[in-house]
Amino acid sequence: MVDVEESLEESLERAGPSAHRLHIDGLPSDVSDAELARRFTPFGEVREASVIRGADGACRGFGYVSLHAAPPEVARCIKAYTGTRWRGKRLAVAPASEDYMTRDAGQEQPA
């Protein structure tokens, strides 16, 4: 049996000690960037928090947090928030992949 938390920590260790970009899915429709930042502050220094919004300004249900913390703390953060509810919405937190960030920025993917 694979230890998921250990695998996550190993993956985060390979990324290094810099800020870790997290993808947060299931955000409430009325959440602000500042609220998102405050939610993740207990786990490290939040360098950026962005709720992704559509052209009409409405939250698209997800966002990103750049968290400057040691890999074990980032892993604890992911474990602590994944599956929890925020204003009735179930959160999913994971390391952000480059393809998510590029797509969400409206840029084309490399072929």
UniProtKB/TrEMBL annotation:
Composition bias, Acidic residues: 1-10
Cellular component terms (Gene Ontology): nucleolus
Organism superkingdom: Eukaryota
Domain RRM per the UniProt entry, residue ranges: 20-98
GO MF entries: RNA binding
Region described as Disordered: spans on this chain: 1-26
Alphabetized UniProt keyword annotations: Nucleus, RNA-binding
Major localization class: nucleus
Coiled coil residues, start to end: none
Compartments (UniProt record): Nucleus, Nucleolus
Name of the protein described by the UniProt record: RRM domain-containing protein
Organism: Emiliania huxleyi (strain CCMP1516)
Lineage: Eukaryota, Haptista, Haptophyta, Prymnesiophyceae, Isochrysidales
